[in-house]
């Protein structure tokens, strides 16, 4: 890193301003209901450190996130907002971390890249969930900055930071490994390529050692869910294969994805025209930005959020063209992207992901002192919202319970698609009042059997 970049008086105020902006954009959504995946983390992995690092169920455990949950609980956090605070801070910190990473390549690019990540709707959403995506974004941005600095000066502090970010990044979410692997390309043209690769490789080795208790179970799940095809899906609960539509969702919306592709193209074109003897390489960022396509090509089972690990690379590349060559097209696209991101973010902050808390409140308001029970997958997670009764998993037994229950009663079904696998139970429940509560990640169904007339 150059002395000018190190001593720039604007750097610290810029980073603080980006952090404050990102914190503010992410605050309102912290009070949402905890949804299925978050409750799964809290119930199965977040009660002790041994659970966090030694338990794995269908690759749902993100050990670093589970550790943050355990820490928040140890400090007395009980509400949804309190449990999400560590993720709020980590996700907001990713924006200034990316700006710090790119600062040697120019203040304007650093500002813009940090701003893109601060406003990007998926990055905002990642910061509002008790999952590993927000810590992964922060650690990926820090790893990029450490690798770029290690490329310029083989100082142990940058190597230690890089290795530490790799270890923790893999623990935050294994998808981060796809982006971290691309940092090896920075060894090309580095002052000490072997030093950079040694620290990066050491980080991967350390990450695998830390994950060793759960790695075999995680790998079996991943291997089983490659090459997924729609007709072979085991149930309507499965998300299906990762495809280009989901990649568009990972950008925030199809229109945002289109604008992002334009900015990435402008960034790569600008990088190609660089004449500096030792430019900050865009090859690594370009490879990182394209790695989500591996999910498409492999037919991996997946959700749009599985591609969020690419956002630091997307933001860094998207900022390159407008920062280096601020032509009218680039500025118009950037302004459109930022304005649309702000609008989408404001709209999404008002919505729920999956309103399990609201479903329980509605159920109790409908039946008063009557029985409220949960049914289907995720029902065992509703104890935190005061629902301890669970309908039997066997369809015949469940029908007997429903027939024998005195009215009024209400059932809360966290994953309504489950009923497609229980046709007789669905037919029995369809005779009663049904309320569908929409959510970004999926609806919640409440069935109410009122008092006999």
Question: Which sheet architecture does the biggest sheet show?
Answer: 5 strands, mixed
Q: Would you identify the regions where 5 or more consecutive residues have pLDDT less than 50?
A: none
Instruction: Give the class from helix and strand content and strand pairing.
Output: mainly alpha
Helix content: 55-70%
* Mean pLDDT across every amino acid position: 92
Tell me the distance between the termini: 78 Å
- Tally of helical segments: 22
Shape: elongated
The proportion of residues in beta strands is 5-15%
Write out the strand line-up for the largest beta sheet, numbering strands in chain order: 2-1-3-5-4
H/E element sequence: HHHHHHHHHHHHHHHHHHHHEEHEHEE
Overall radius of gyration:
24 Å
Task: Give the strand tally.
Answer: 5
What does this structure look like?
- The radius of gyration is 24 Å and the shape is elongated.
- It is mainly alpha-helical and 453 residues long.
- A five-stranded mixed β-sheet has the order 2-1-3-5-4, with helices on one face.
- Strand 4 and strand 5 form a beta hairpin.
């Amino acid at each position: 890193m150059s002395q000018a970049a190190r001593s720039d008086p604007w750097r610290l105020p810029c980073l603080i301003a980006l952090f404050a902006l990102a914190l503010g954009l992410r605050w309102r959504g912290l009070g949402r209901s905890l949804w299925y995946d978050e409750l799964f983390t809290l119930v199965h992995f977040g009660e002790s450190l041994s659970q966090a690092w030694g338990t794995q169920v269908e690759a749902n455990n993100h050990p670093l996130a589970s550790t943050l949950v355990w820490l928040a609980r140890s400090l007395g956090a009980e509400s949804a907002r309190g449990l999400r605070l560590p993720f709020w801070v980590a996700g907001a910190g990713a924006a200034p971390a990316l700006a710090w990473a790119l600062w040697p390549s120019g203040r304007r690019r650093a500002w813009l890249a940090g701003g893109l990540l601060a406003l990007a709707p998926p990055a905002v959403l990642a910061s509002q969930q008790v999952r590993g995506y927000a810590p992964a974004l922060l650690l990926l941005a820090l790893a990029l900055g450490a690798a770029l600095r290690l490329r310029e000066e083989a100082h142990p502090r940058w190597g230690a930071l890089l290795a530490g970010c790799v270890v923790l990044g893999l623990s935050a979410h294994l998808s981060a490994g796809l982006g971290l692997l691309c940092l090896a390309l920075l060894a090309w043209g580095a002052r000490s390529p072997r030093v950079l690769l040694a620290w990066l490789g050491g980080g991967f080795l350390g990450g695998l050692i830390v994950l060793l208790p759960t790695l075999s179970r995680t790998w079996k799940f991943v291997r089983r869910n490659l090459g997924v095809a729609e007709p072979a899906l085991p149930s309507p609960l499965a998300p299906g294969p990762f495809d280009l539509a989901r990649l568009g969702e990972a950008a925030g919306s199809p229109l945002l994805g289109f604008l992002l592709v334009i900015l990435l193209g402008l960034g790569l074109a600008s990088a190609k025209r660089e004449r500096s003897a030792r430019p900050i390489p865009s090859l690594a960022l370009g490879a990182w930005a394209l790695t989500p396509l591996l999910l498409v090509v492999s037919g991996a089972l997946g959700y749009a959020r599985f591609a969020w690990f690419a956002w630091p690379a997307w933001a860094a590349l998207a900022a390159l063209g407008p920062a280096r060559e601020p032509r009218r097209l680039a500025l118009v696209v950037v302004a459109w992207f930022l304005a649309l991101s702000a609008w989408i973010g404001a709209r999404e902050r008002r919505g729920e992901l999956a309103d399990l808390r609201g479903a329980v409140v509605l159920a109790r308001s409908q039946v008063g002192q009557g029985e409220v029970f949960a049914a289907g997958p995720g029902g065992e997670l509703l104890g935190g919202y005061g629902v301890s009764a669970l309908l039997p998993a066997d369809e015949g037994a469940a029908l007997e319970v429903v027939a024998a229950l005195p009215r009024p009663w209400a059932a809360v079904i966290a994953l309504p698609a489950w009923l497609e696998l229980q046709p007789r139970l669905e037919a029995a429940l369809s005779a009663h009042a049904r309320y569908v509560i929409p959510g970004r990640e999926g609806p919640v169904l409440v069935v109410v059997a009122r008092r006999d007339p």
